[in-house]
Amino acid sequence: MIDALVPRAEDYDEIAALLALAFHGGVDPELLEVERGVFEPDRSLLVRDGGTAVAHAAAFSRDLAVPGASVPAAHVTMVSVAPTHRRRGLLTGLMRRQLREVRDAGREPLAVLWASEGRIYPRFGYGLAAQRLVLAGDTHGLRLPDPAPAEGTLRLARPAPHRAELARLYERVRADRPGWSGRNERWWDYVLADVKGLRGGATERRVLLHEGPDGLDGYALYRTKEEWAGTGPRAEVQVGEVVAARPQAYLALWRLLLSIDLTRRVSFPIAAVDEPLFRLVDEPRQLGAQLADALWVRVVDVPAALAARRYATDVDVVVEVTDDLLPENGGRWRLVGGPSGAECAATTAPAGLACDVRALGELYLGGAGLAALAAAGRVRELVPGTVAATAPAFGWYRAPAPMEVF
Fold it and tell me: How much is the mean pLDDT over the chain?
């Protein structure tokens, strides 16, 4: 274990300065106050050298939507090492200690994070569990289906007065999308904060509300950014999030977002890999989608994690797991489950599959295919036919997707 201290709340300014140094940014006083609202000092680890902060790692206490359930997950964040203290084992020590503390606390069977670089976290057992599509496309001439009669009404507003409505709808839709994190009051403060220094020349954030027969059933948070070319207007619509409980609301929101006067481009950096928009527009290539990584999951407690989610089909399989950092996860585990629930317990029965804990993290949200991992040699089939019999269970009817970077 490294000699790291649990910081005080008043140490956040120094931690923010370290993060700015590591990620090549500045310290915005307005953003600092927003971030201070979600900082959990008791879940942070700070390394000092001669009184100066040189390394840090933290976690947020949030729930994560997983296939068929919502599970407490350590949302790992603010990981940084000063340039002067690289290659000294500080990152390794912080990540190992953090995982051990999460495991020993016994509250969260998972840890989840966004990776600044994909090569960093697999050595700590994190697997790429959810990808995203980054949209940056031309909306000129893009067509959507015609509106249906009486599909609802749209209203444009500032987000803050509608916060309670947005929160209720978000939580309702979250249950159906693995990868979305829970938001308490502090997190809604954070999400709706409109820090001027982060606008990049764009407008303040706006919310587009869709009212259906039973009230609010969709919203979109977005900005616009002015631009003019010699041939005329080229403004951009910058979409932050789109939440819809009905297809009619989803279509109506995007119809307006893609047709705002004087705009010719759209950006949406966190589209799902199964984003319905691609099945609606007449020329999906025009959206300019690029695949990127999103959520990395680390299974901290194998039996608790596997029993917490649901499975698309009935499954009864023994998996032999290796975990160099948390040896309690090692061994053979029998998973018996299906759409209504699951159980997982240690067993001495022969294993049908074998993998490391990283592969379990990749499988956990239902986005990575078991067959693909087996084809890559990341999962070994010990009993012929086990992959084919088990793969459908680990999938899910909706792809996992992120909602915000934390």
Answer: 96
Here the tokens at position 342 are 């699951």
Asked about 406 being catalytic, the answer comes back as yes
Instruction: Tell me the mean pLDDT in the region 255-280.
Output: 97
| Residue 184 Cα distances to 36, 38, 190, 305, angstroms | 15, 10, 10, 23
Query: Is residue 181 part of an annotated ligand binding site?
Result: no
The single residue of 12, 39, 60, 121 carrying the catalytic annotation is: 121
Q: Is 8 annotated as ligand-binding?
A: no
**Does 1 score more than 60 pLDDT?**
no
Given a cut of 90, whether residue 148 has pLDDT beyond it is no
Q: In this model, does residue 146 exceed pLDDT 90?
A: no
pLDDT, tens digit, 9 for 90 and up, residues 96-109: 999 999 999 999 99
Q: Based on the residue annotation, tell me whether 222 is a catalytic residue of this protein.
A: no
Q: Is 89 annotated as a binding residue?
A: yes
